[in-house]
Specification:
globular, 10 helices, 275 residues, Glutaredoxin, alpha+beta, five-stranded mixed beta sheet
Length: 275
């Protein structure tokens, strides 16, 4: 039974690592395993409270606060939210797709008190990089969340991925260019921004790796680390703790709009190895 529980937790909550070989087949197999387990467990529960196995590489200490920069990153929610969730994800990762519903539920639960920041961590470059650049380019025209939804619903679910380097020519990027047209974006600007967004995506990845993040999905909740497609209760527990801290500090004089800067960026650890 113990071995089964560990296996179940690994399948449900493990994160995507860098691996591009036979990616579509692997995604399909993971989805089938996840569906089978959820059906067997009645749609959830069982392993709901289990933690994902810790990877062998060093990772952030869950008891500490890390100063993860969000400058220039697209986000959902108000800029002065009391709690900021930084989401590191990859557009070819089935666990990242599975956690979308959790993010939606958190937005409903916390409303104006929650902000979710998008950060790209491309662990499947041959299939996810073009999506990452398309999201970045759409965000520059104010349509990041809409592009995100299209990539998941019409690219990932159909297993149709724009090839790596497609932005260097029109060949291969028809799918993403079609999404841009569907969103009524300036397509020429979109194409140009996909190229310039390489710097943005590389900066996101460098920032995350500075804190030891090497798998998706991963999260920093007001600087506190969580990894894997965890149940919503795991998020709620940390968010409620951080909300209580924020309420107290704001009442004591911290400007709400400066909360993340003052209590996460200014006071948080600046790297994985910082003391």
């Amino acid at each position: 039974m113990k071995a089964y529980a560990l296996s179940l937790a690994a399948l449900l909550l493990a994160a995507c690592q860098a691996d591009t070989k036979n990616l579509n087949d692997k995604i399909d197999k993971l989805d089938k395993k996840l569906d089978a387990i959820l059906a067997q467990r009645g749609g959830g529960g069982g392993a709901a409270g289990a933690q994902a196995p810790r990877p062998s590489r060093p990772e952030p200490d869950r008891s500490k606060t890390y100063a993860v920069s969000i400058d220039g990153d697209p986000f959902d929610g108000p800029a002065d939210a009391k709690v900021t969730v930084v989401k590191a994800y990859d557009y070819a990762c089935p666990y990242c797709e599975r956690v979308r519903g959790t993010m939606e539920e958190l937005h409903k639960k916390y409303g104006e008190n929650l902000r979710v920041v998008y950060k790209q961590l491309v662990v499947h470059p041959q299939t996810a990089m073009s999506g990452a650049l398309a999201f970045c380019a759409a965000a520059k025209q104010g349509k990041g969340p809409q592009m995100d939804a299209l990539i998941w619903d019409k690219s990932f679910k159909a297993r149709q991925f724009a090839p790596d380097q497609c932005w260097n020519s029109d060949a291969g990027c028809e799918l993403l260019n079609g999404f841009a047209q569907e969103l009524q974006l300036d397509v020429n600007k979109f194409k140009a921004d996909m190229k310039s967004c390489q710097t943005v995506v590389n900066n996101d990845m460098s920032e995350l790796r500075k804190f030891g993040v090497g798998a998706t999905p991963s999260f920093f909740i007001n600087g506190r680390f969580m990894s894997g497609a965890m149940p919503i209760d795991n998020f709620v527990a940390i968010i409620d703790e951080e909300m209580k801290k924020a309420d107290e500090r704001i009442q004591q004089g911290t400007p709400k709009a400066q909360y993340y800067q003052q209590w996460v960026i200014d006071k948080g650890l600046k790297s994985l190895d910082a003391k």
